[in-house]
What we know:
Blueprint (H helix, E strand, L loop, with lengths): L5 H4 L6 E2 L5 H11 L8 E5 L5 E6 H6 L6 H4 L7 E2 L4 H11 L3 E5 L5 E6 H23 L4 H24 L4
Parallel strand pairs: 1-2, 4-5
Antiparallel strand pairs: 2-3, 5-6
Amino acid sequence: YPEDTAGRYMTPDFVAIDPEMTAAEALAHIRQHGRKKETLNVVYLVDKDGRLVEDLTLGNLVLADPDAKVLDIVDPGFVDLRDTTPQEKVLEAFKKYDRVALPVTDVSGRMLGIITVDDVMDVAEDEMTAKAAELVMATGKASTSMMQTKLKVGFNRASRLMEDLERFGII
């Protein structure tokens, strides 16, 4: 995947479940296939063609009637990122939707992977580095005090992002 896109930062280690499963079947599937996955806080309903249908928090799944269809348990309106989404938009999506993980799909809606909060921190670090490099290129050279100021601003942004993620219980 191209640099600075969601595809570059995603991991293919996620749990997918069939939308036709019951809550009990989905929990059994997670127990069998969930080990060593990036996160189990959110599982993804993926159809037989590999297309993302919906996401479901583990909490809602655990609390559901065991005979309920998982598709009936979800809160409609999942958010996904395309594999080509620029890193700035990835950061914005995490901040806007307060998610622990976001699914990444291709143009056809096929599930490719997920980006987690720790991946977002990597994105934020990369963006700060890129902003510092832009500053140097734009000015031809940057004074030490100017660089320090710009880096402090970037660090403060990253700190605020971390505080928001902690405040919303994401990390």
